[in-house]
């Protein structure tokens, strides 16, 4: 597809004179365009759901979630992946972000990196991609060679492939098992896809990782019960989470968290059931790490 035919590369008729506006009106124009993004994402929620269900199915078989992109798209994948370990207590290798040009490209543009389709394939080979893994190819244009190479290789070995683009009927859509296409329209500044397209990609990636972690038992109610207490703020958050989940006395919460080395999930289960640490840990393991299921099993066997 020619560049000029891409929606994301179009010229926005609403912002043709943005350079003549005062600061307030300039910002209002940007804000008006940003309002269109969640509505575009809303239209593709069923596709996001298909992607999540397949990712979870494979993750339960030992698979990983891999984000692949170039430029802004690659950086957004890395951002989402890097937040999973502290938020959900995941192994850093469970959700992985890969960017064309390697780590240097996170901060600096690497010329020509996105045009190398073989590099997309090689970067997946380098992490020993398997058929149990899920690969999300992120490209606003839907035609980035690096992402196409990665998706084609992933598909060739039986991995689950997902495309995320802001243009319909692209090269990526002919490869991916599931295609997610929030069409946000032309950018405020022509071709600046770090704006609306980037925002849409961020929203979709948030949805994918969050729903995946919920379905993997990392959330109880709406509480992040696998959070890693790696700093003072997160230590306080663990106490608040256990408090909200159990309503228990602060002293008991503190003592239980200390005993479990700030394992929030285990602390909640111990307080709710009254079990000691070993029995609660065994019950949690038998319940696949799901607190709700563990409590149900405990009540069923009383």
From TrEMBL:
| Pathway(s) served | Amino-sugar metabolism; N-acetylmuramate degradation; Cell wall biogenesis; Amino-sugar metabolism; 1,6-anhydro-N-acetylmuramate degradation
The record's InterPro entries line, in alphabetical order, gives: Etherase_MurQ, Glucokinase_regulatory_CS, MURQ/GCKR, SIS_dom, SIS_dom_sf
Residue ranges that the Swiss-Prot or TrEMBL entry lists as coiled coil: none
**Enzyme kind, highest EC tier:** lyase
Q: Which CDD domains match?
A: SIS_Etherase
Q: Please name the Gene3D superfamilies in this protein's record.
A: 1.10.8.1080, Glucose-6-phosphate isomerase like protein, domain 1
Query: Which residues does the Swiss-Prot or TrEMBL record annotate as the active site?
Result: 83 (proton donor), 114
Residue limits of the SIS domain? 55-218
Listed A to Z, the keywords are:
Carbohydrate metabolism, Lyase
PROSITE patterns found in the cross-reference section: GCKR (PS01272), SIS (PS51464)
Q: Name one Pfam family in it.
A: GKRP_SIS_N
- Which domain of life does this protein belong to? Bacteria
GO molecular function term, any single one: ether hydrolase activity
Query: Which EC number applies?
Result: 4.2.1.126
Reactions catalysed, as given in the entry? N-acetyl-D-muramate 6-phosphate + H2O = N-acetyl-D-glucosamine 6-phosphate + (R)-lactate
HAMAP family recorded: MurQ
Q: What does the similarity note say?
A: Belongs to the GCKR-like family. MurNAc-6-P etherase subfamily.
Assembly information from the UniProt record: Homodimer.
Q: What else is known?
A: A lyase-type mechanism (elimination/hydration) is suggested for the cleavage of the lactyl ether bond of MurNAc 6-phosphate, with the formation of an alpha,beta-unsaturated aldehyde intermediate with (E)-stereochemistry, followed by the syn addition of water to give product.
NCBIfam families from the xrefs?
N-acetylmuramic acid 6-phosphate etherase (TIGR00274), PRK05441.1 (NF003915), PRK12570.1 (NF009222)
Function, as annotated, reads: Specifically catalyzes the cleavage of the D-lactyl ether substituent of MurNAc 6-phosphate, producing GlcNAc 6-phosphate and D-lactate.
Protein name, please? N-acetylmuramic acid 6-phosphate etherase
| Organism of provenance | Thermoanaerobacterium thermosaccharolyticum
For this protein's source organism, the top of the classification is: Bacteria, Bacillati, Bacillota, Clostridia, Thermoanaerobacterales
């Amino acid at each position: 597809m020619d560049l000029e035919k891409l929606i994301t590369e179009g010229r926005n008729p609403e912002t043709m004179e943005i350079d003549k506006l005062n600061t307030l009106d300039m910002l209002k124009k940007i804000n008006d365009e940003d309002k269109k993004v969640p509505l575009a994402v809303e239209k593709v929620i069923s596709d996001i759901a298909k992607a999540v269900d397949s990712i979870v199915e494979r993750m339960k078989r030992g698979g990983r979630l891999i984000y692949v992109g170039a430029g802004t798209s690659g950086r957004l994948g890395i951002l989402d992946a890097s937040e999973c370990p502290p938020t959900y207590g995941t192994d850093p290798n469970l959700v992985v972000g890969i960017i064309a040009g390697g780590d240097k490209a996170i901060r600096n543009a690497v010329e020509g990196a996105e045009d190398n389709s073989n590099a997309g394939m090689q970067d997946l080979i380098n992490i020993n991609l398997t058929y149990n893994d899920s690969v999300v190819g992120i490209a606003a244009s839907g035609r980035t060679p690096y992402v196409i190479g990665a998706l084609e290789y992933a598909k060739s070995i039986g991995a689950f492939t997902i495309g995320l683009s802001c243009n319909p009927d692209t090269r990526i859509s002919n490869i991916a098992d599931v295609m997610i296409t929030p069409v946000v329209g032309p950018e405020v500044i022509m071709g600046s896809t770090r704006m609306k397209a980037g925002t849409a990609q961020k929203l979709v990636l948030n949805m994918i990782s969050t729903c995946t972690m919920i379905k993997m038992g990392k959330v109880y109610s709406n509480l992040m019960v696998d959070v890693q207490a790696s700093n003072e703020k997160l230590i306080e958050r663990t106490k608040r989470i256990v408090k909200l989940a159990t309503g228990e006395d602060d002293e008991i919460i503190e003592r239980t968290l200390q005993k479990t080395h700030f394992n929030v999930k285990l602390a909640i289960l111990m307080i709710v059931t009254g079990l000691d640490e070993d029995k609660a840990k065994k019950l949690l393991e038998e319940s696949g790490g799901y607190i709700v299921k563990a409590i149900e099993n405990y009540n069923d066997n009383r």
